[in-house]
Structures are given as structure tokens and as C-alpha cells.
Design a protein that fits this description.
336 residues, 32% helix, alpha+beta, five-stranded mixed β-barrel, five-stranded antiparallel β-sheet, 2 domains, 12 strands
């Protein structure tokens, strides 16, 4: 049953070194432990998200994000990746338990840490400045805009065309659309990358549902780490063993490609690629190549040991035959 009060969670992430800036607004239900809905956008110009969070509401942030997307000023690929990551985290019991606990305790540094962990999966290791604002509000006030417009003056919102929900919908958690509709709501979502095979691989834009391919799990989110642990994929040297996967759905948009895969029956993942030229290794039933120094080394050592043993045996036989031959010659000379 939905809670009568929810948390409005807003944040800005600014990394001036890489010129990457993120604006996020979300509604967190503390009872169901889920991010009910959210809006996020990534830009390369900090002025686009220059809005004081303390005077803003979830609706205000949603309007700003939608306006940026409507005008085509967002970093599309990064925005898509962040949407995907926040959807995954919003379904993760472990992530949500930590987030709600830290919000209740008002441990801002730990909230920033969780947010930065998601950002690092999309942008690499960065140390942005993260500004937070969260508050407990009545559910009926979720769609209320702030009373002050001074926060939006730098965005020229008075002159901006109104963005309707059809043009830039808020993404609701639990009702995926597009290619995400192929991932069951109760599935475990993992992060992964393709294992490539430049010579004999399948071009990524030619992958079809049912194709068997080889992937490698990556990422530091709780869901992926949990699957790596359960499947015992981590080697002694820290590397992750590749695993076979089945293509569930694909979507091609020019040079952009999205692919949904599954491992087993309830582990799913989605990946976004910007190049058609990469070729994905097909799974042929053979075990993926083991890391250097592990199984392959053991196999080589075993083969070498076997060959050495065979050589030793052959030498022993030859020596024995030589001794027998000398003895027979000696007997022949003695008798005759």
C-alpha cells in the first residue's frame, strides 16, 4: 500500500574537470522502499541546471529536465545510461534500504556516496560536487510547482514552450517502455559488456532474439556483485569469467544499438552501443577462454608432464632392450 507521505529527493552533480553536470528529481516511497518515479538529465553546460534546490519542488526539477530534453541540449547517451542505472537501483532492495536509512538519519555524505557510485558506472571514476535537497511531503503535493519563479529566471522558462507529458514523459518505475518492456519487473538486472571477436563475431546491429553470445558482468552495483558471487565468476586474480547469454531483444537506431540479454531465466541486462562496427563473440558451446595463469596454464603443465613421463618410459624400454641385446651377444660368443 503506498505511503501517504513520500520523500522528494533532488540533487545536482557538478564535475567541472570533465564538464559533466547532472540534475535529478525523484519520489521515494519509504514504505514500499522504491523510487516511484524520477527525471534525470546530463548536460555539458552547468548554466542549464543552475537552479537552487532549496526553493524547488520535484515538479520544478521535472519541468527543467524536460525543457532541456525538448530543446535537445542534453547529453543523450549519458542521460540514457543514467536513466537505466537509476531504474535498476530503484528496484534494488539493498540500494533502497541504504538510501532510505541514510535519508531518515539525514546522513548526507553517505547519500552522496550512493549517488556517486551510480554516476561512476556511467562516467567512470569521478569526484563531483553533489548538492542535495530532500524533504517529506504529502503524496497529493507531488505535482505541485514551487511558488517562486526566481529560481528559473536563468532558464528563460517564461519563453519556453510548454512540454506536455507526451513529449517528455516522466519515467515511472515498474512500467518500463520500449525495449525495457522485455525485462520482467521481478527480474534481477545486471550490468555487463560484450566479449568481442573482431574476426568471427556477429556485428552488434545484426544480433537477433535467440542468438547465443558471450558476455562479462561488470559494475559495482549490489545486483551485479551478488550474481558474480552466486555464480562464482570472480577468479583469484580478480578478473571476472565470461558467461554465455541469450539475446532477448534488440533495437537499432542508425548507428545506435540497444540489446537486452538474459542469463538463465531471471537475470537480465541491457547494453547501449554507439557503433555498428563491433562484433560480438557467439557462444558455440565451448567454455570461454580462462584467464592467463589459471586453467590454461594448468592444462599446459599437465600436457608437459605427460610428455615428459612418456619420454622417460621410452628411454627405460630402450635401455632394457640394450642390456638384453648385450647379454645375448655375450652368450653367443661364449658358446661358439
Amino acid at each position: 500500500m503506498p505511503s501517504e507521505q513520500v520523500y522528494s529527493l533532488l540533487f545536482q552533480s557538478r564535475d567541472s574537470t570533465s564538464s559533466l553536470y547532472i540534475l535529478f528529481g525523484g519520489i521515494v516511497d519509504p514504505v514500499s522502499s522504491r523510487i516511484e518515479k524520477f527525471e534525470v538529465v546530463a548536460v555539458g553546460n552547468s548554466e542549464l541546471i543552475n537552479i537552487p534546490l532549496s526553493g524547488a519542488t520535484y515538479k520544478d526539477i521535472t519541468n527543467v529536465c524536460q525543457k532541456i530534453k525538448y530543446e535537445g541540449k542534453q547529453l543523450k547517451n549519458l542521460t540514457n545510461k543514467l536513466q537505466e542505472l537509476f531504474q535498476t537501483s530503484g528496484r534494488s532492495d539493498d540500494f533502497m534500504e541504504q538510501l532510505i536509512h541514510y535519508i531518515n538519519k539525514r546522513e548526507d555524505d553517505k547519500i552522496r556516496y550512493l549517488i556517486n557510485q551510480i554516476g561512476n558506472q556511467a562516467m567512470g571514476n569521478t569526484k563531483p560536487d553533489i548538492t542535495l535537497w530532500y524533504s517529506l511531503i504529502d503524496r497529493g503535493k507531488i505535482d505541485e510547482a514551487g511558488s517562486s519563479k526566481s529560481s528559473f529566471e536563468t532558464l528563460d522558462t517564461e519563453e519556453a514552450p510548454e512540454v506536455t507529458p507526451d513529449e517528455a514523459p516522466v519515467i515511472p518505475i515498474g512500467t518500463p517502455t520500449g525495449i525495457d518492456a522485455n525485462i520482467p519487473a521481478n527480474a534481477t538486472r545486471i550490468q555487463f559488456k560484450f566479449i568481442l571477436s573482431p574476426v568471427s563475431g556477429i556485428p552488434v546491429n545484426q544480433l537477433r532474439p535467440g542468438d547465443q553470445i558471450v558476455v562479462q558482468l561488470i559494475g559495482s552495483d549490489p545486483a551485479t556483485l551478488g550474481i558474480i558471487d552466486v555464480m562464482k565468476l570472480k577468479m583469484e586474480d580478480g578478473s571476472i569469467k565470461p558467461v554465455p547469454a541469450t539475446v532477448v531483444a534488440t533495437e537499432n537506431k542508425g548507428v545506435e544499438n540497444e540489446t537486452v540479454i538474459k542469463i538463465g531465466n531471471d537475470i537480465f541486462g541491457k547494453i547501449y552501443e554507439e557503433e555498428n562496427s563491433i562484433k560480438v563473440r557467439p557462444y558455440t558451446g565451448d567454455k570461454p577462454a580462462a584467464p592467463r595463469g589459471s586453467a590454461s596454464s594448468a592444462s599446459s603443465a599437465s600436457s608437459a608432464s605427460l610428455e615428459a613421463g612418456e619420454s622417460s618410459l621410452l628411454l627405460t624400454v630402450l635401455i632394457a632392450l640394450g642390456v638384453v641385446g648385450i647379454g645375448m651377444v655375450a652368450i653367443f660368443v661364449f658358446l661358439f
